[in-house]
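Colleagues,

Please find the record for the two-part complex below.
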Amino acid sequence: MKSASFDYVRPDTLDAVCSCLASHPDARIIAGGQSLVPMLAMRLARPSLVVDIAHIDELSAIRDDDDALVIGAMVRQATALSDPLVATHLPLLAKALTHVGHPSTRARGTVGGSLVHADPSAEIPLVAVTLGASLRIRDANEDFEFNAEEFFIGPMLTMIPPTACLFEICFRKPTSANVGTGFHEIAARRSDYALAAAAAHIEADDAGIVQDLRLAIGGISDFPQRLPVDVNIDLSAGKTNLGSNLTTAIDAALDSIDVVEDMHASASYRRRVAAELARRAVDDALSEIAQDLS
Amino acid sequence: MNITIDINGKNVSAAIEPRVTLLDFVRDVAGLKGTHAGCEHGVCGACTILLDGEAVRSCLILAAQAEGSQITTIEAVDGTARQPGELSVIQDAFCEAHGLQCGYCTPGMVLAAKTLLQHNPTPSREQVREAISGNMCRCTGYVQIIDAIMLAAERLQGRNQPANGA
């Protein structure tokens, strides 16, 4: 398990990273390396040049931008998990991060690295899709952004051009004070790749009427996807059991998703489990709001 | 490329290829064989070391990435120079609770435990399970390893000291 040979550079500006990528068409960026180094070891990746972005200071910051929280691409997963701003404004991300790898991989793995690696079962892409995060990218001295929902296009495939570098991720803060979140996944072993995962972020007004219900699933298809569920939910009389409307809406939304099948789980299993995890995620989120309101 | 890494408080320099992992640097350049090579692609946890005090997998880090960081291996697990055979509290707890059989996973387990106990001196068994979830052991069935870490936690707090300090 030894990598093929490659050259290594450690630029200290984002523009220098872009020019390295432009001059070496098969270069790869290394952030935490928790996905790339195994791919190098198994020789699934054989770049001629590895570009280390760990020494670009601005990529490691978490910034409070009034109505948004902006997380640098190089912020370690363990740092994000223990960050008070993330805990306050992005409770869904905080919940999901506890499922990402193990403590020893979270200490090195980065938020941005997980997004551009785009493993279909990864938690951070699922959260980005659920919350509609903006992924900010630099390519040849030009900045642009993708909404997470249009960023992922296949297993390990994203819209990012080979010469570009993700530098920060912008998460809109909740606009309501009543926020509930839920995150559930199932895997063969603790912290292994999720066979199915579901994330829910729900905001309600002070009267207990749900204004924004965001639900998404991961692990069951080529990339994480939103499940559109258009159901009126009123928590003013306290939380009741999930209505059959909601259950039907989740099942209907899942019907339109092309579910993958492999040696680990059948498509039918993944679909059934995803439906149940989605219900639990929504249930957790509504319970949190009901508790806040009471 | 020329690399210098602080390993157990000593600067180790060498000219290496960029593809050399921190694991191979520690074992083959620094000559510290207590860090074990297992799967070499980030699955088993045998190669766990401390990087700036946090448990990480040395096979998933290029040596070049570790320049400027402080590395601690099992040979200096509690930071003090010890004679061969002299054990730290966590290592001793592993012996006492039968937390090892073949010993291949043990350096990784001990360092994962050390990171956990630094952050959380009084973990629950569930938290211990989470902390070692990335470390595979094919002998013990894990129960005695959890026992060992719970015992180490208790000892590190001095709770098994006689009340009068005698």
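Chain A has three domains: 7-52, 58-172, 178-293.

Comments are welcome before we finalize the supplementary table.
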